[in-house]
Amino acid sequence: MIKDIFLLFFKASLWALGGGFVFIGVIDAEIKKKSWDSLCDIDSLIAITTSLPGPIITNLSYLIGKKLAGITGGLAAVTGSILPPFIIIYFLAPLLLNLNQEATRLFIESFFYGGLVGVAVFVFLTALRWIKEAFEYGFVSFASFILMTILMLAKVHPLIALFVGFSMNMLLARKNKDA
What we know:
Strand content: under 5%
Structural class: mainly alpha
Shape: globular
Order of helices and strands: HHHHHHH
Helix content: over 70%
Distance between the termini: 51 Å
């Protein structure tokens, strides 16, 4: 199982060009594909991870790996998730330093424009899944999710948006319960 955990996180890290939130979408899909979601509550671990200080990728890797196979699984997951960027930077940096500045700039721009499409797709699919799950919990949860999203897009502090959404959820849920 340790080898499978390492390979899963290694593969996910290769695709996580967009950072932690793309990694969340990739790892969530891969864990569900392997049917490991019955072994760990991925949504709870994601919620915990986003509240911890430090990189989302390493935090989530450790928590999932530890839940699946103990501390050894956590270390295998973290190693699998940090190895691809390390290898890429280790081998790519000398190549880029040997190119002239204009060629380097064009290469890097092209690389990131190409990656932008993949990142957009993963972020869209992850957001779509979250919206679908919020809607499945009922209209009240879906409405508070939409309200929190709108407030955050309007650059309201996330804690205030969460408080407003939570308050709305509790208020409407109580009214529905009393009715």
